Amino acid sequence: MKKILAIFASLAIAGAAHAGCGKTVENKGSLSKYDAAAKTIVVKDGSKEATLTLTPTSTVSGKDGKPVAIESLEGKDVVVVSEHNKIQSVKAS
Question: Which tens digit of pLDDT belongs to each residue from 76-90?
């Protein structure tokens, strides 16, 4: 019985560790570069740069909240929400 409880306890701990932290990061700045081949963007805020990766679930929207092509935001101010450098949303600001 103790072995079974030990196995379940270790599985529960392993499952919690695998779930991830869920911490999101918000980057504000100018979308200085879009690389279609690598599916990455570079957001520049002063001297800081963040290289982030677009995913199939990433959403891109204009100031009005309607979907736009990521290319149309190049050179404009954006707010990017990401988790572990994987983009969740890009919005023109």
Answer: 999 999 999 999 999
Considering only the top CATH level, what class is 23-92?
mainly beta
6 DSSP 8-state letter: H
Return the domain boundaries, the chain. Answer: 23-92
CB atoms closer than 10 angstroms to residue 34:
18
pLDDT band at 11; cut points 50, 70, 90: low
What is the 3 state secondary structure string of 20-76? CCCCCEEEEEEEEEEECCCCEEEEEECCEEEEEECCCCCEEECCCCCECCHHHHCCC
